[in-house]
Structures are given as structure tokens and as C-alpha cells.
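task queued by scheduler; priority normal; single chain, no ligands, no partner chains; default sampling; output format set to C-alpha cells
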Amino acid sequence: MKTHLTQSISRHALYLCVIMSKAHIHTYDICSLVMDKPASEDILVARFTDYLAAHPDIRFPHRHSFYHLAFFTGGRGSHTIDFERFPVAPGQLYFMVPGQVHSWFFEGRTEGYVVNMAAGFFNAFLQDAGYVERFPFFSGVSAEGVVTLPEEAQPGIVALFEEMLVEMDGTEAYSHDMLRLLMLEMFVKVSRETRNGDVPQEPPHNYVLLRNFRKLVEQHYMQLRLPKEYAALLYVTPNYLNAFCRHMLGKSAGEIIRDRVLLEAKRLLINVDISISTIAYQLSFADNSYFTKFFKKYEGVTPEEFRKSIS
């Protein structure tokens, strides 16, 4: 059972902190983690130590309704994103999109920076509302959202974060616009640093098609399970879509759809208050038996066994 703790964070705003239990994954909105900023804020930049001190319960599994970024400059531990575990090390950037489940465990003091950014933060600044989604680390795939910067590139990114912290005070005119500029500069520099110069770049339309396919899967994976259904929405043939996905991601279109269904199943299974049959229904399986067979075929364990392993 969740316990709700109402806490005053400033004379400007009140927010609701939720102390999480193992039985439930809480979704935080950006206003609940503002750290003494007004509840209308749509951006937060903070030092990681200050952020953890203000919100100790966010070490437990949770998800956000906003974009979340962590940059580690010191310390060690582990960070789990959508059931994939990554060892924490200095120089790492973690980019997370709304809805991803994550938790972390640190050994000793961990230093760095954290950014919480509303989905519409750039909407009033850029004509293309989907511009941020073009960066590969915002794909929503856990491994693609973890970036290790070369040592020589780290001081420049640290400097950008320090500038962002200054602008967070909001004492200068156009502070939010400057934050947007600094954020975009950081995104571009990180993308440049992590591109493999030895690998030929794909034509731009390939990235557009991949992004559109992933967005369609995110929107319709509970109802549409066949590659031909997505191919029709993208105006390509099923064979082309499968070949394209194998070329870009090393997986068929069917595997990408299946992986998204499995991910949501695992997210739902964490909540022990939801029955297996209810999860099967939510994911549009004909019955509990079919869902169990599907899950065991691709995960190697039944839903019940998976649930016990993470409890």
C-alpha cells in the first residue's frame, strides 16, 4: 500500500511525495521533483548529490512522465533501466524517455548532474516538436540511452552542466531560452562524440522511417502485433520493413514488436496487486494460458516465476 506524504517545498508550491513499496511502481510527474522551484517549472537541473538528498526514495524502481538525464562524474554502483542493468562509472550519461522504469544502487558518494525535462520543453522554441527524438539516445531502448564519453570530451560537457546550473537560478533575462540552447548544444556534442567515424552514415530518410516505426509500435503494440499491419501504416511492404529493421537494428520488425510487448508485461508484473489474467487482458492476449506460453517462450520463465524473481 502506498503512503502519501504531503511536504511543503517552498512558499510557492506544495507537492506530493510518494513513498514507494516493492509492490508498486510510482510514476513521478515533473512537478513532484522540482527541488524548491515553483510547481509550474518544466525543467530541473541539479547536482546529483543534492537531488538524491532531496528525494531519497527515487532509488527504488519508478518511472517518469518526463525526459530524465543523469551524468556521472564520480562514484560507482549500478543503474537498472527497463530490467537491464548497467554498471555506473564516471563519464557516463543516461538518457531516459517518459515511461521507462529505472532504479539505482550506489556504493558511497556519487557525483554528477541530473536533468528533468518536460516533454514539451522545446515546443515553444523549435518548430519541429519531435526534434529531440532524432537523437539516438532518446530512442527509448535502454542500451541506446547509455553513453560513455571519451575522457577528453568530459570537461566540455561538465562546463555545459555548470552553465545550466547558473541559468536555473533564473536571475538573468531569457534564462529558459539559454537553458534550451545549452541543452541542445550538449545533445549535439554528445552525439558527435559517440558517432563511429569508421561506420558509413545512414541516409536521413532511413532514420525517419526507423523513428516512425518505433513511434507506431509504441502507440499500437497492445493491438497490432503483425509487421504487415505496421508496414501498411508506413506505406512499405512487410518484406521491406523486415529487411530494413534487420539492417538498422539487427532484428526483424516482428522481434521489435514482440520485445515491446514483453517489456510492458515485465513492467506490469512488478505490481503484485495486478493478477496475471488481468495483465494478459491488458496486453490483448486471448487468455491467460496464451500469455503464459508467449512469456515463457521468449523469457524462459513463466510470468509467475518472473514475478517471484524480482520480489
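post-processing summary
- The domain at 204-310 is CATH 1.10.10.60 (Arc Repressor Mutant, subunit A).
- The CA atoms of residues 285 and 291 lie 6 Å apart.
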